Design the sequence.
C-alpha cells in the first residue's frame, strides 16, 4: 500500500505491521481457536503453532466463540468432574468380570486372592456408579440448564438400570463373597454392567461434542 507525502515527493510504501501487532489484533478479535481436524480448543495467542492434539499445522485453526455463561458456572464445568468421575465405575465394572474370569484360569493359590479382590470391587461399585450418575446430573443441569431433554432423560434411565445392576453385584459379594461356585454369575453381571457403562460413555461423548463432531468422529 502506498501513501502520498505532503512535500510532493514520490509516495512511499506503508511499512508492514510488526508480527507482534498482528498477533495482538488476532487476540482481540477472538480469545480461542478450534482445530478443524480434531476439535481441540486452544487460546488464540497459540494459533501460530501446530495443534498440540493432532499435530496438524497452524492452518487448521479457526475462530471459536464459546457460549457465554456465568463465570462461576464456567469454572465448575471446566473442572470436568463428571468425565473424571465416570472412569471409576467403568473400571470397576470391567474388573467385576475380568478378575473372576481370570481366577477361573489360574491356580487356586492365586485364584482365591483374585476372588477376594473381586468381592471388594463389587461391594464399592454402587458408590462409584452413584458418584458418576450424580456428577452427570449436576453437570447436565449446569451445561444445558435442563435435564428433561430426551437424550438426558435416556441417559438417566440407563444410569438407574446400571446402578441396580451394581447393587445386585454388591449384594452378592456382601452376602456370600465371590468364589468358584458363583463366579460365572458375577462374570455375566459384570459384562452386562460394562455394556451399560460403555453405552453411557458413548452417549456422553455425543452430548459433549455432538454426534458427528470431530471429538466423536475420530
Sequence:
Amino acid at each position: 500500500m502506498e501513501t502520498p507525502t505532503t512535500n510532493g515527493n514520490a509516495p512511499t510504501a506503508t511499512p508492514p505491521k510488526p508480527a507482534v501487532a498482528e498477533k495482538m489484533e488476532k487476540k482481540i478479535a477472538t480469545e480461542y481457536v478450534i482445530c478443524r481436524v480434531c476439535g481441540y480448543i486452544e487460546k488464540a495467542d497459540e494459533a501460530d503453532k501446530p495443534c498440540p492434539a493432532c499435530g496438524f499445522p497452524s492452518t487448521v485453526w479457526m475462530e471459536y466463540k464459546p457460549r457465554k455463561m456465568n463465570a462461576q458456572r464456567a469454572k465448575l464445568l471446566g473442572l470436568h468432574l463428571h468425565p473424571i468421575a465416570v472412569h471409576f465405575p467403568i473400571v470397576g465394572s470391567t474388573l467385576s468380570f475380568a478378575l473372576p474370569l481370570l481366577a477361573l484360569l489360574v491356580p487356586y493359590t492365586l485364584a482365591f486372592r483374585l476372588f477376594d479382590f473381586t468381592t471388594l470391587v463389587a461391594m464399592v461399585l454402587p458408590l462409584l456408579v452413584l458418584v458418576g450418575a450424580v456428577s452427570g446430573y449436576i453437570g447436565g443441569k449446569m451445561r444445558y440448564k435442563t435435564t428433561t431433554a430426551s437424550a438426558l432423560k435416556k441417559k438417566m434411565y440407563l444410569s438407574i438400570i446400571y446402578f441396580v445392576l451394581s447393587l445386585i453385584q454388591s449384594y452378592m459379594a456382601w452376602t456370600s463373597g465371590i468364589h468358584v461356585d458363583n463366579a460365572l454369575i458375577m462374570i455375566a453381571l459384570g459384562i452386562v454392567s460394562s455394556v451399560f457403562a460403555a453405552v453411557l460413555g458413548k452417549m456422553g461423548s455425543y452430548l459433549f461434542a455432538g454426534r458427528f463432531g470431530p471429538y466423536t468422529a475420530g
Q: What stands out?
A: Residues 108-144 form the longest helix (37 residues). The helical segments are 19-29, 71-78, 81-85, 87-103, 108-144, 150-176, 183-209, 214-217.
